[in-house]
Amino acid sequence: MTILSASPQLRGFGPQAAAVLPAARGGAVERQRTACLAMMAATGLYLLFEIPFGSLVLDVVGSAATREQVDRLEWTGRIFTALAVLIVVWGWLFDRYVAGLADLRRTVLALVATAVLVVPVAHQAVWHAVEGVVAASSPSARQRAANAQLLRTELFSAKPRIDGLVLEADSLARPEWKAFAAAAPLVGIAAPHALASVAPGFRELLRRDVEERLGGPARFREREFEPALVELRKAYGAYRDGLAARTAALGPAERQADARWNEWREFMLKVSEQTMRFTPSEVRNLRAKLAYKGLKLGDDQDPRSEGDFKRAVLGEAVAPAEAAFDAKVRDALGTEGALPRDIDTFERFASQGPVQAKMKSLLGLDASTPMLPVDARGAAFEKNVYRPVSESVQRKLSAAYVGDPASFADGRTNGSLGRDVFRASLVPPVALFLSLLGILVHVFKFSNYALILRAQRLPGNAGRSRRGRHLRIGLSMAAVFAALLALSPSTSRLTSSSFVGAVDADAARAMPWLPIAAVSGPIRAEAAIYPVKHLFAVLPHFAAVEAYVRAANR
């Protein structure tokens, strides 16, 4: 986005300037010439990047752009915003220089100091302004933004199925369609009824969107399922390590339990005269003797049973070892639940409830989904894994996109998604609008400085009327812009789409305070000026900016 500086309301520079400049002002004329050349250089350099930036916004947003690319567009736009603010401040500093309030050395130092201060401050100020708008957005507006972005995804799919949207083979490559794709999400946010024409088929759009994201069974297995299996195998390795640690921890205790049981068995054989037969009262005496020796048996444990005896001996040693084992498995799975201690294959491990919960979480499935087999292939994989995943994702999206908008509130299920998609919808159209306005204002400023320099070479007061100069610049810019519109007949092709017409009308009714936000305005303006912007975009100086934005998410 770009904040635009106003053209100095001066015939030349400084408040001392009158409507007509005297033929010669000596040093003041030289100062004015220096200031004009410096401001022309700064404004011209700004335009060299601002003009192609608008083209880049259309090219990126008017395609299947990623969120990361939109984020980089926003960051780059804030840089140009900061530079525009800096040019305003520099204009004020040169006003002081022309008026004789500061010499050239002090002015240069001030230019450097303001550049160091203004650029980061303005850059962050714009970020806070955008974040403030995003934070103040309502859950319903965020839901509409999500819906609009879904339609935008459908627009760039292989076979768009939006009712009333007429597309020719090469339509998406034309600038008016790129502008429409950039502006439509904002219209969807502002006009609650702008999406009404596609509402009946919205779930079908969701299904197609999910299918395209998953990419079919083979691609889903490669991109999602196999990485999930890698995570499960890591968890299985942790389970095996936990078993080994448990065995190592219990080894000495188990040997001690064996030795104590052998001693106790010899005692019982001795007192029973080798018969191992005891009356109930004698069993109570055996239990009391063990308690006297520090070994307490539970009410359900028999002092004559080897298993009960060893469990009682191991009790104190087993508890920490079992707790350490359970903690290791829990950390590996990220979920609660005990596992058997005798699992010897990965397939059996993967069939356990806690492991299935981990797997379903990795794939974005509900816990209620039937068990997922890890060894399924071919048609079995598509039926038992791919289809359940696809249907689960569709249910979630359907509940969010066409259900209760409250889920998009901060802190709710789709709160983060709502903020991100609202920002992604807000940035491109605002950037296009401010970029276009910036171009107009700064071209005006550049022309004004050029005419001031020209007037200094004319005799007398020729060409030095500020009002006449501004009028000539304004009329010339209007003529050029009208010519661009006239030479861009492709901009009228959008009117053949009933969908675009409905969205345009809804936007115009929803936003009377900002008529240019109606789709037709920015579409026509951006489509008309796009050829000029694109000529600047292919110049070498802009290659680094374009490479930075397009390299996102690769």
Automatic annotation (TrEMBL):
Keywords: Membrane, Transmembrane, Transmembrane helix. It comes from the Bacteria. The chain crosses the membrane at residues 35-55, 75-95, 107-130, 430-451, 471-488. This is DUF4129 domain-containing protein. It comes from Methylobacterium hispanicum. The lineage of its organism: Bacteria, Pseudomonadati, Pseudomonadota, Alphaproteobacteria, Hyphomicrobiales.
